[in-house]
Design a protein that fits this description.
The structure is a homodimer. The first copy, chain A, is mainly alpha-helical. Chain A is built from 7 helices and 2 strands; from the N terminus they run αααββαααα.
């Protein structure tokens, strides 16, 4: 079982967008350069986030992406499902309906016990991801990120995007 | 995120082995025919289960696979990790150490908050899978499987493996 790198990149990009003033937009190419990831591939992830209504694409010379709603209203699960798709990790191919012991399809009224057990585990996985928001990740930046990195990030983003890029997260939030 | 079909097949095979008398062995080829899955690919899954100490390969004319320990002592997680490998689904590539805001590697003392959140969710996923045993899946056969399918399975397996193949699970167990 493996989650694609796109999930990691999308979560980092959304956390950066959540740390900036709500109307501040960042082009996908700048997000790619800031995170040191391939621009073309990141563009696909940002488009997936846009289709899912997590980020909003603002056209124009100062355009780019911003969060489509408040960081506190977007869960990690929202981002993961936007990038990876809604399908469960365990796909039941109804093995029980194959082979010499199979009976008429109409007889399979209950879900397969194996699939049910796997899906119970996926449900708690999703519940846990849904319990953490982008707002939580932004707040965690204050305590989890080295102050030197935060300063370098603010300076670099300010030079690229203009002055209004002081992160909105404050120590009070964390 | 996707789990391979091998997980589904391995869980079905281990449940069948758990439902048979402890010393009853089944060749991988018979397990493949019983489940209607490709024999060569299933053989790889059975070898992975053997390497993980979940099943035991018994050589000889009446040889094949049997569970290496009691069905109640093997969790679904044991089977999933044996087939899929122990690596977490979310692989942190340390994106935070890339790009213009990166600082000296020694400054990254805390784990990335994004990775930590993802790994918390994987932990509850694994805990849930670890809470269900093959014994639970075997017991569930009594109530979850159509009696006609159970009868057809017993008859087919008896013809292939000899008479001592009455499932050990009884209605009392479910």
């Amino acid at each position: 079982m493996r989650l694609g790198d796109g999930v990691e990149w999308a979560l980092h990009c959304c956390t950066v967008l959540g740390a900036l003033p709500p109307e501040q937009t960042i082009p996908s190419s700048v997000l790619a350069e800031f995170h040191g990831v391939p621009s073309a591939y990141l563009a696909k992830q940002m488009q997936a986030l846009s289709r899912a209504g997590i980020v909003q694409s603002v056209p124009g010379r100062n355009g780019g992406y911003k969060l489509a709603r408040a960081a506190d209203d977007i869960s990690i699960l929202d981002v993961v499902l936007a990038v990876e798709g809604p399908e469960p990790a365990f796909r039941c191919t109804e093995v029980r309906q194959q082979g010499p012991s199979a009976v008429a399809p109409a007889r399979y009224v209950k879900p397969c016990g194996i699939a049910a057990a796997m899906w119970r585990a996926e449900e708690v996985f999703r519940q846990e991801l849904d319990a953490t928001t982008l707002g939580d990740l932004v707040s965690e930046l204050d305590t989890g990120v080295d102050p030197e990195q935060t300063e370098k990030a603010i300076i670099w983003l300010s030079q690229r995007l203009g002055p209004a890029t002081t992160p909105v997260n404050t120590p009070e939030k964390s």
